[in-house]
Amino acid sequence: MFAWFFDHAVPASFKSQARRASLPFPAVLEERAGALRPGESGLLALDWWNGNRSVLVDADLTGLLLGATLATPPEAIFRALMEAAAFGTRQIIEAFEARGLHTRDVVACGGLPAKNKLLMQIFADVMGREIKVARHPQTCSALGAAIHAAAAAGRQAGGYESISEAAEHMAHLQSETYRPRPESHKIYTRLFREFQCLHDYFGRGKNDVMKRLKALRREILAA
């Protein structure tokens, strides 16, 4: 979703300004988006650019951006997309906990935590939880494969007896964490309730306009 935004929704003039300042334009976007307060953009998005994998498990759902005006700048849209990703994560965690699967820790993995500190702070503010960050940037892929390999090898071959034992020795956290800001969390909770309304309205069959639009597109392309 962020790659789509960078490739297709950032004006060329914005990128040119960043080049003249010898700065990568995502960093400039992050700085400008960080200057906006929660709720200031007037935007709300559903992070379904590639469908919804959880909790709806529906690949035919599509993205939504609500509240745009002629005065909406790129950084406001970028922030709304970051907030949508955080809202989607909170939706998943609340679905777990509603069914008795309580969450003790939230750990951010992959490359984004190192590239975008604002995103991590938004996640903490939206969820009202401390966000810890994995030390290894390839936790979900390379390190995960190594942990499974070490467990498969066993202690006699220099590995470990179980995946949990391997993870305990091989997976580590950074010392830096992101703590929620109470005032931001309060505003984001209000926005999250609006997110849930859109989530259920478009995702649980009340309005299948997203699917009808995709069906119409397929019909047109096939004609």
CATH architecture of the domain at 2-102 and 181-222: 2-Layer Sandwich
**What would CATH call the homologous superfamily of the domain at 2-102 and 181-222?**
ATPase, nucleotide binding domain
- H/E element string? HHHEEHEHHEHHEHH
Q: Determine and state the CATH class of the domain at 2-102 and 181-222.
A: Alpha Beta
- What distance lies between the first and last C-alpha atoms, to the nearest angstrom? 29 Å
Looking at CATH, which topology of the domain at 2-102 and 181-222 would you report? Nucleotidyltransferase, domain 5
Shape: globular
- Please outline the major beta sheet: 3 strands, mixed
Strand content: 5-15%
Radius of gyration: 20 Å
Overall average residue pLDDT: 94
What does this structure look like?
- The two termini are about 30 Å apart.
- The mean pLDDT is about 95.
- This protein has a domain at about 1-100 and about 180-220: Nucleotidyltransferase, domain 5 (2-Layer Sandwich), CATH 3.30.420.40.
- The radius of gyration is 20 Å and the shape is globular.
- The protein is built from 10 helices and 5 strands.
- The strands form 2 sheets. It has a 3-stranded mixed beta sheet. The protein has a two-stranded antiparallel ribbon with strand order 1-2.
- By secondary structure, the protein is mainly alpha-helical.
List keywords for this structure.
mainly alpha; Nucleotidyltransferase, domain 5; 3-stranded mixed sheet; two-stranded antiparallel sheet; 10 helices; 5 strands; 56% helix; globular
